[in-house]
Amino acid sequence: MSKKTTVLLLNLGTPKSPNVSDVRTYLFEFLNDPRVIDIPWLLRKILVNLIIVPFRAKGSSKIYKQVWTKDGSPLMIYGEKVKQLLQKELETNFTVELAMRYQQPSMKSVLDKIQKDMPQKLIILPMYPQYASSSTGSTFQKAMEIIKTWEVIPEVKFVNQFFDHEGYLDTIVENAQKNDLNEFDHFVFSYHGLPIRQINKVHPNRNCLTCNCHKEFKPDTDYYCYRSTCFETSRLLAEKLAIPKEKYTVSFQSRLDKNWLEPFSDKVVEEKAKNGAKKILVFSPAFVADCLETTVEIGIEYREIFEENGGEKLVLVESLNDHPKWIATLKDLVLKA
Ligand SMILES: C=CC1=C(C)c2cc3[nH]c(cc4nc(cc5[nH]c(cc1n2)c(C)c5CCC(=O)O)C(CCC(=O)O)=C4C)c(C)c3C=C
Ligand SMILES: [Fe+2]
Ligand SMILES: [Fe+2]
């Protein structure tokens, strides 16, 4: 007999609307997460509530207005689509739910609903291909805080990451191949950045920036090192697309300050243009759906930087969104869990 199973898909979350007050509420919840701004409590309260949020809300709201569609935020729209498509793909003993780590639909409200439905098994699947404490780790912590209070705790499975899943990689490859790859002078794999101190917490006995975990992926020691898995994801994609080593760069975007992972994507794009690259293709493998960081940051801001510095064409590989191969990948991850 197959078990009654609930699949909980998760993503970061997005403001209720792009208006300044909703963006402020979203940033306030997001950045007060101790796994996101991982500094002592009092310092975080001062930094986030008196400096970052007040200074950032207006600018972020402007950017959210650029990404917003008549149906809302793309991250939410694709989340809902993926939930429905995955539900269709799975047997009737599976129920698929969607929640967001911050804002709505909240993890508490969706997990309350799941608790009432009493599944025998719960699969928690944050849609982040590479593990990071601030994304996947935070989502699991929140889920555990809620589930630990339940009278009946069902069998719970966590899907920690899937950067090396063939289906995930092949979906990106297929999207990239919608372009003529011979046309490009250079390829950039741009990942969401992280503070360096967070990366170093993963392997506290050595410095990630001076060790070789980006050159060679060693699962025994580096399985949860975000920097290492980002480089490994890029190597796997480059191999599938036959892109030679010297033709691609791995970089990190969306930094909040200078102590984040380097090289910074905006600087790479600028430098490539200054060094004569005319056409570049940018991948965003850390994001499974179109969002502010892809559509606006890469698609608009980096394109401008590239063109201002002598480049002609920056093309962004579209996100996995509702691609049938991505839905098949999620199905496989669920069935394997
Ligand atoms: C890939 C997964 C993500 C990790 C890891 C991550 C870490 C992280 N992010 C911030 C700060 C911000 N991120 C913002 C937006 C944003 N971040 C992710 C994903 C990861 N973040 C996504 C998918 C999005 C877009 C959401 C959308 O609705 O489109 C923002 C808000 C936008 C802005 O003001 O720039 C902030 C702020 C930190 C500090 C961090 C880890 C330390
Ligand atoms: Fe982020
Ligand atoms: Fe590392």
TrEMBL record:
Molecular-function annotations in GO: ferrochelatase activity; metal ion binding
Enzyme class: lyase
Localization per Swiss-Prot or TrEMBL: Cytoplasm
Family annotation (NCBIfam families): hemH (TIGR00109)
PANTHER family from the UniProt entry: FERROCHELATASE (PTHR11108), FERROCHELATASE, MITOCHONDRIAL (PTHR11108:SF1)
The keyword Cell inner membrane is annotated on this UniProt entry: no
Biological role: Catalyzes the ferrous insertion into protoporphyrin IX.
Keyword Cytoplasm: yes
Pfam families: Ferrochelatase (PF00762)
Protein name: Ferrochelatase
UniProt: Fe(2+) binding residues: 192, 293
Pathway membership: Porphyrin-containing compound metabolism; protoheme biosynthesis; protoheme from protoporphyrin-IX: step 1/1
Family annotation (InterPro entries): Ferrochelatase, Ferrochelatase_C, Ferrochelatase_N
Originating species: Labilibaculum filiforme
UniProt-listed Enzyme Commission number(s): 4.98.1.1
GO cellular component, one term: cytoplasm
GO BP terms in the entry: heme biosynthetic process
Entry superkingdom: Bacteria
Signal sequence interval, chain numbering: none
Record field: catalytic activity: Fe-coproporphyrin III + 2 H(+) = coproporphyrin III + Fe(2+); heme b + 2 H(+) = protoporphyrin IX + Fe(2+)
Family in the record: Belongs to the ferrochelatase family.
CDD domains: Ferrochelatase_C, Ferrochelatase_N
Keyword terms, alphabetized: Cytoplasm, Heme biosynthesis, Iron, Lyase, Metal-binding, Porphyrin biosynthesis
